[in-house]
Each structure stands twice: as C-alpha cells, then as structure tokens.
Design brief:
This protein is elongated. The chain is of the alpha+beta class. It folds into 2 domains: 3-214, no CATH class; 279-438, Histidine kinase-like ATPase, C-terminal domain (Heat Shock Protein 90, 2-Layer Sandwich), CATH 3.30.565.10. Helix 4 runs parallel beside helix 7, helix 8 (184-254) crosses helix 12 (290-305) and helix 12 packs parallel to helix 13 (327-345). Strands 1-2-3-5-4 form a 5-stranded mixed sheet, with helices on one face. The chain has helices spanning 3-22, 29-45, 51-73, 76-106, 112-144, 146-151, 158-180, 184-254, 258-271, 273-276, 280-284, 290-305, 327-345, 376-379, 395-404, and strands at 309-313, 352-359, 363-369, 410-416, 421-428. It has 15 helices and 5 strands.
C-alpha cells in the first residue's frame, strides 16, 4: 500500500476518534471542526502536493490536538489519556486487519493474489473495528468514570505528561517511518514497545483513578467520624448538665423572669448548635459522584478555614445519571459559583452560606444563598434580579452562563442586593421521573 493511500486511511481514523470519542468531551465543537478541516485538506492535498506538505499537515494536526485538549479541559493528564487512547486504538485496529495479513504475506503463508483480493475488505474492516473499539472505550469510561475521576485530580503532572507525550509521538512517527522504509522488523519491535507503553500508561491511570476515588471516600468518612466524635463529646457534656439546665430554667419561670429564661434558652441552643444541625459531611454521602463529592469537600474546608457558617442540604440521592449536561461542565459551573460566593462572603461580618442540591419531578436544582430558606422570598423579587442590561455580572457568573448556553433546558438566575444574594441553577433531569419531595 502506497504512503499517500495509507495517509488517507490514517486521517479517516483520526476523524473517527476526534468526532466519536473526543468531540465535546476532550475538545470543543469549534476545535473539533478545525482539526477535521486539517485532516480533510490533508486528504485533498495528497493528490496535489508532494510528501513534505503531507507530513506538514499531519504534524500540524499532531501539534494542535494536545494544545486544544489542554485549553478546553485545563488538564494535562486528560490530554495524555486521550493521546494514548488514540494511538492504542489505531495500532490495535491496524495490527489485526492489516499488519498481521502483511506479515503472513511476507513469510509465505498467504499468496499475493489472495492478499490483494482481501485488502479492500481488510481496510474497510479496520475502520469498522476502530469504531467498535471507540464504542467499547466509551462504555468502559461511562461504567468506571475514568474520565471524570481524572478530570477532578488537582495535580496536573505537567512535566511528566509532556515527557510521556513527546515519547509517544516520537515512537509513533518512528514506527510510521519504519513502514515507509519497509523495515518490517523495526516496525514489529516498535509496535510491541508502543503497545507496552500504552498498556502501562492506561493501567497506571486506571489504578490512580480508583485510588483517588477510594482516598476521597476515606477522607469524607474520616471527616464525618471526627464530627461524630465531637457530637458524642458534646452530647455527653450536655447530658451531665441536663438536670442543672432544667433547674435553672424552672427557677426563671417560677420567678416570672421570662426574658432571662428566653436568653438562657438561646444560650443553650447556641451551645448545642452542632448537635441540632445536620452534618455537612453526612450530606455528601448522598452524592454518588466522587468528583462532585471532592468539589464539595473542598468547599466545606474553605468555609471552615475562613470562618463561614455553612449549611448543606442534599435531601435525595444524586447520581451522575441525574445530570443532563457533561459532568465536567457541571463541575466547572458549580466550582465557579462556590468560589464566587466564598470570596464574596469573606468580605462580610455575617458569614453564612446555604447550599441546596435537590431533585424535583423534572429538574435538578441548585440554590446557593447567604440567607436561610425561610428568608429567600425577601430577595426573590423582580427588583433584585440581575440582568445584562441592569448591571454587569461578575466573571464567574458570566462563565457559568457561557457554559450553559451550550445546553437546552438549563436556566440560571441571580438575585442580588447590597448584602444578600441568591443563585439558582436548574438543569432538566437526564432521566425524568417522579421524585417525591422531602
């Protein structure tokens, strides 16, 4: 098979991968369109220009693709994951339906005539096999949450990823050069090396993602355990003081000192507030999504560090399947909103944040405010609604709206006055069902 024809088939492989595996997940629609245009022009120019220009277009595609992924996802690990997945799927699909028949032809087990007859079917089969592999990878990722786990890892491992990417690209082009020079032994050695490198990388990423999820669960359980210990200690102290509290309260009432009795009750309530309020860490157990758990865990820690009183309410079990938009976009929106309200509340003396994540019969609803639920009606009025014409929005809120514009049946509403605010985010449930209110 000539090099131009091989380059066309390789471009078709890349087109499948960037559209069926990478589009809207690793790259935006505009980025995917740009990469597709490069590949299409590459195929068209094969018949018009010499090999150097063909190599230039492939080189341009190889350089732009990782840059686009990093710009879109802000994650070096996910960029490396996609490039290694891409190379693995292409190598394996070519290995069985082209490389193996060519090897059998070289050693004389397949005649030249038979190979020529089978070649069109083998090349079409290679494209189809690659598509099957893409579907399997998407199923595997959906089942084990590999992409979402890696997307939420805080470390970027930039230097390590760059070195691994350079090594991958170098070995891959060296392998193609071996094909061009008909050095079949070098081609086989490089294929084994590349498959080994890909296997080690994928296994490491998979183990790391599972390890990250387990560490996150352990951290949440540890934090909840510490909170429960504090509650038990406080409950024991309260039990010992219970009799004296009742005696003091009865004394106030018998002497008709009602104002002092009321003040005494408030002091007891403040003292036992940690026992009366629901634990934020306990609420996180109702999230069946480790990336969202990790985001809210960081949010809780930020509020504790800055002395912000936080109340989290998650009345129902929330699964990834309830979220109709991409999980990474959901995390971006939620992260921007949480960072915004933490930074805003830090400036005020009365530092309180109320966060609610719940399901209604049709929607997944997020409410973030510095007012308790019973006071939300005070600010949920037309005069407090922020619109583009009324005043410019903070950059975090603008970014949220920009992301949500890519999805239907999503709404975001912002209510503000000088001191108070209310942010509501509504997403249609991915699978609409009747969910009882609690």
């Amino acid at each position: 098979m000539s090099f131009p024809f091989f380059a066309i088939l390789l471009s078709l492989n890349y087109l499948q991968l960037i559209w069926f595996l990478g589009n809207k997940k690793y790259t935006s629609s505009n980025q995917t369109t740009i990469l597709s245009s490069i590949l299409i022009f590459h195929c068209l120019f094969i018949f018009l220009f010499q090999t150097p220009f063909i190599v230039f277009l492939l080189f341009l595609f190889v350089v732009l693709q990782p840059i686009f992924i990093v710009c879109h996802l802000k994650s070096w690990l996910l960029m490396a994951l996609f490039l290694y997945l891409e190379s693995s799927l292409i190598i394996i699909s070519w290995l069985f339906l082209y490389d193996l028949p060519v090897y059998l032809l070289r050693i004389g087990l397949v005649s030249t005539e038979l190979h020529q007859q089978l070649l069109p079917f083998l090349l079409v089969g290679q494209q189809f096999l690659l598509f099957i592999f893409i579907l399997w990878v998407k199923w595997f990722d959906q089942k084990f949450g590999l992409f979402d786990s890696i997307a939420h890892v805080q470390k970027n491992y930039k230097v390590t990823v760059i070195l691994l990417t350079i090594l991958l690209v170098f070995l891959y082009f060296l392998r193609q050069f071996a094909v061009y020079n008909s050095s079949y032994s070098s081609f086989l050695y490089l294929t084994v090396i590349l498959l080994g490198l890909n296997s080690v990388f994928h296994f490491t990423v998979y183990v790391y993602s599972r390890y990250y999820q387990e560490q996150l669960r352990k951290l949440i359980l540890s934090q909840q355990y510490n909170k429960d210990l504090d509650k038990i200690t406080l409950a024991d102290e309260f039990r010992h003081d219970y009799r004296s509290i009742l005696v003091s309260l009865m004394g106030y009432i018998e002497e008709d000192r009602l104002e002092e009795a009321s003040a005494f009750i408030l002091s007891v309530t403040d003292y036992s507030k940690n026992l009366l309020e629901e634990d934020s860490y306990d609420q996180l157990n109702r999230l069946a999504s480790p990336p969202i758990q990790g985001l809210l865990l960081r949010f809780i820690e930020q509020c504790e560090e800055k002395g912000i009183h936080l109340n989290i309410s998650i009345p129902q079990k929330i699964h990834d399947a309830d979220i109709s938009i991409r999980l990474i976009d959901f995390i971006r929106c939620l992260s921007a909103l949480l960072d915004f309200i933490v930074n805003r509340q830090t400036r005020y003396q009365d530092k309180s944040i109320y966060f609610t994540l719940k399901k209604t019969p049709q929607d997944l609803l997020i409410e973030i405010s510095n007012l308790p639920k019973q006071q939300l009606s005070e600010i949920r009025q037309p005069e407090y609604l922020i619109t583009d014409k009324k005043m410019p929005k903070p950059s975090e809120l603008t970014n949220v709206q920009t992301i949500l514009k890519n999805y239907r049946n999503t709404t975001s509403v912002f209510y503000f006055d000088q001191q108070n605010l209310l942010i509501t985010l509504s997403l249609q449930l991915k699978y609409v069902s009747i969910v009882p209110e609690k």
